[in-house]
DNA sequence: ATGTTGGCTAGAAGCCGACAA
DNA sequence: TTGTCGGCTTCTAGCCAACAT
């Protein structure tokens, strides 16, 4: 057997050279994953980043030194986003270049707001979880009728039986060809020749999903989503997980100190740690007044590639890691769920993850004019209140203070560590 | 097809739970790889470590901040060594726990000296590079006659044809069974049934090697060595290579500042970066006076799992990275090779990698009494001379100064950053 | 001594409709 | 509408010695 030119797969570095199809990437990433747009403002949580690394390594870190100069969140400009897919496993991930900022202008804030609306799941899309029959060597793939009719090129039904050759490209642009035939009693769409090669090459098993899309250029593409069961089981072998954690924190701390850009990888399917949050989303969430017993809804991906909301109740508010990440808002809400079915749901979430079921009174009173929030048990009641109030107010300042006509006006915001400085600067800019 | 319980392979975490057979590990690692013994002293080169990461990532790092507090070498106590093998690829690597030390005692130094002698390549060992026929689906594996006679259990030649079932375990203790038969015209040893399963499971290709050993308990084991062509192509997807580099340096710097232990992975086949060097080996190399034009020999692994020496000449002496790692001895020798055949050899090596071809005059004059070395072009001629002279002297101090009877006497040595302090301490300890 | 090839065969892969949920 | 199965066919994996180097 001849060796492939470079490693196990035919073109391992290909995913790196070519740019990845964005629609296919999002289809593989799932309906809940949305990436903030380039040029927008985001909030970066080192704690969440650390959590993703721990999940990827399947190992909690024994010891990570505290980084006293690294705040629990950094407001950053998102300079660059590139989409990637692991050449071995097709796992999707994104590389982002972030630059901590002390001030930002209104355009960037608006751009950040944009990020909230777009849902990137392609319209011409279908996804099927593979059955035992689909993955057995005994036969082919049974195509759901609707899917074949909506996505596949139409068959010539004058043929007996109607059949055609299908070609679709994956995330790495590798083409896969299948024989698509409409036969059986009752009639059905099937993929036969070529299918098993795909299954074994991608190492798919019953429970994994395959998806077909037709992108905006009406190209026919296919991708996979693996069942959560399959962790990539990276035991690294390159650097220790301790050094990884230190590296992440040191890189962020260095960037924060110098306002220099740094690079992170966001791996949406490795762990549910959305540690780069659009600033607008974060700000919007800061309007929410949380309290024990509060009811909320939260979106989850279903087995069948859809989404559904589950109801829950806030049962506690406390720091996830009171030692290293004091007063962080990262997953500081303890929650219970109405349905205790399978498919575990997290016991801790962040405020921007949930959709509160609120009484109208609490939403959107004009900032600075609404009554001060009552103290909340379990919430830090130190001077962070001031900071929170400030941040809650931010997204609306441009409108409320009639700055619509001065789009270039710069007004500063803070990263926590230099709060005092920026806060003073803030009032100066208002006063001018 | 049913999914394996956890990922692609049957027991991905198994290599982590069970301890790896040391002889098999070393057989897979190759004849040039030797690990310093636990409890010995080693010299750790962050620069070399960084190099290994760059090689593993197949990416030079654009930007790594300087770590001014991190010396280019750290003398460390080696506390722990665990052997590992990647569950996916069987790539061998070692995890080491190092603790920077300012002082060390004579026992540790002697232990470090031990490390030099042991060659861990098992005696009952054979290794064959796979041919196209060996890896094709058309047939089995042609066993070299000598190998079968030396390592395999003897066949019953009264049978027609002589045959038996062979069982061997790999690094993860997974058993593999093969039909071993002696047949054909002319007669030969073959592995038939079971062989192709092994080849496809381990994803072996022509050019890769398979090796069989019989360990000290006379267990029959097998392992693989992949051709260098196949890089693991880790594009990480977890953390950026920048953060990795920073993580490595930050972890080492933190450990150096606190004399606290830190953990590294040494991946001998990923790159030829032996960045953890036994102190005795380092000290011994410090005796070598290098000069332009000096002739030397150096060992390399051959295609056929053996070793051979190549002759070369020193063509330059300079820092590999004069900015970040000034006066580091890491690969500061530029070299040319007598044979310019294929199988590239490095253009830069470290002094402890080579065996100088020296005139007797230069070796082992009594330290402190020999004439001062002439200035060397291209070598730093600053106060590092003093340091080098001191370090050259170290391994012999115990004997030369009659300290044989005081095994507990502590005498300090330095890491570069605290040179002055330690150097003073050194004379104090001599004086007492 | 051992790599490659053609011939042969057993068994797996894979196409099909029947049947059932 | 679609998952699984028994029946049947095709093709590849894989055993063998011949032949070549």
From TrEMBL, chains A, B:
Localization in the cell: Nucleus
Annotated Gene3D superfamilies: 2.30.30.1040, DNA-binding pseudobarrel domain
SUPFAM superfamilies in the record: DNA-binding pseudobarrel domain
Record-annotated TF-B3 domain positions: 126-228
GO cellular component, as recorded: nucleus
Entries under SMART domains matching the protein: B3
Record's keyword terms, sorted: Auxin signaling pathway, DNA-binding, Nucleus, Transcription, Transcription regulation
One Gene Ontology term of the molecular function aspect: DNA binding
UniProt-listed InterPro entries: ARF_dom, ARF_plant, B3_DNA-bd, DNA-bd_pseudobarrel_sf
CDD domains: B3_DNA (cd10017)
Gene Ontology BP term (one): auxin-activated signaling pathway
Purpose of the protein: Auxin response factors (ARFs) are transcriptional factors that bind specifically to the DNA sequence 5'-TGTCTC-3' found in the auxin-responsive promoter elements (AuxREs).
Family that this chain belongs to: Belongs to the ARF family.
Complex formation: Homodimers and heterodimers.
Protein name: Auxin response factor
Species in which this protein is naturally found: Gossypium arboreum
């Amino acid at each position: 057997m001849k060796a492939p030119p470079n490693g196990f797969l035919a073109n391992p570095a290909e995913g790196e050279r070519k740019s990845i199809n964005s629609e296919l990437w999002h289809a593989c990433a799932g309906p809940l994953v949305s990436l903030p747009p380039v040029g927008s403002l985001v909030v970066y949580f080192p704690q969440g980043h650390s959590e993703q690394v721990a999940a990827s390594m399947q190992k909690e870190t024994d010891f990570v030194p505290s980084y006293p100069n690294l705040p629990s969140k950094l407001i950053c400009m998102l300079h660059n986003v590139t989409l990637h897919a692991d050449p071995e496993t097709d796992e999707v991930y994104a590389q982002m270049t972030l630059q901590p900022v002390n001030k930002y202008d209104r355009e960037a804030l608006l751009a950040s707001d944009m990020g909230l609306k777009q849902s990137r799941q392609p319209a011409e899309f279908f996804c099927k979880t593979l059955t035992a029959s689909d993955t057995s060597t005994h036969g082919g793939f049974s195509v759901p009728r609707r899917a074949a009719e909506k996505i596949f090129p139409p068959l010539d039904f004058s043929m007996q039986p109607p059949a055609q050759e299908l070609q679709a490209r994956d995330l790495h642009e590798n083409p896969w060809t299948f024989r698509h035939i409409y036969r059986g009693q009752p009639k059905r769409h099937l993929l036969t020749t070529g299918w098993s090669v795909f299954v074994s090459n991608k190492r798919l098993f019953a429970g994994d999903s395959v998806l077909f899309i037709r992108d905006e250029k009406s190209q026919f593409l296919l991708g996979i989503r693996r069942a959560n069961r399959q962790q990539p089981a990276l035991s690294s072998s390159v650097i220790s997980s301790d050094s990884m954690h230190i590296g992440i924190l040191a890189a962020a701390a260095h960037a924060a100190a110098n306002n220099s850009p740094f690079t992170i990888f966001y791996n949406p399917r490795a762990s549910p740690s959305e540690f780069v949050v659009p600033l607008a989303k974060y700000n919007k969430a800061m309007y929410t007044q949380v309290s024990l017993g509060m009811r909320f809804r939260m979106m989850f991906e279903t087995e069948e590639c859809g989404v559904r909301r589950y109801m829950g109740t806030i049962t506690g508010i406390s720091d996830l890691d009171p030692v290293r990440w004091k007063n962080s808002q990262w997953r500081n809400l303890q929650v219970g769920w109405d349905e205790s079915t399978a498919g575990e749901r997290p016991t801790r979430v962040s405020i921007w993850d949930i959709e509160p079921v609120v009484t109208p009174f609490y939403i959107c009173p004009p900032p600075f004019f609404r009554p001060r929030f009552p103290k909340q048990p379990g919430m830090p009641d130190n001077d962070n209140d001031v900071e929170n109030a400030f941040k809650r107010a931010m997204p609306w300042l441009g409108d409320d203070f009639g700055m619509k006509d001065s789009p270039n006006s710069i007004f500063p915001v803070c990263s926590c560590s230099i709060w005092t400085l920026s806060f003073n600067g803030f009032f100066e800019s208002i006063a001018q």
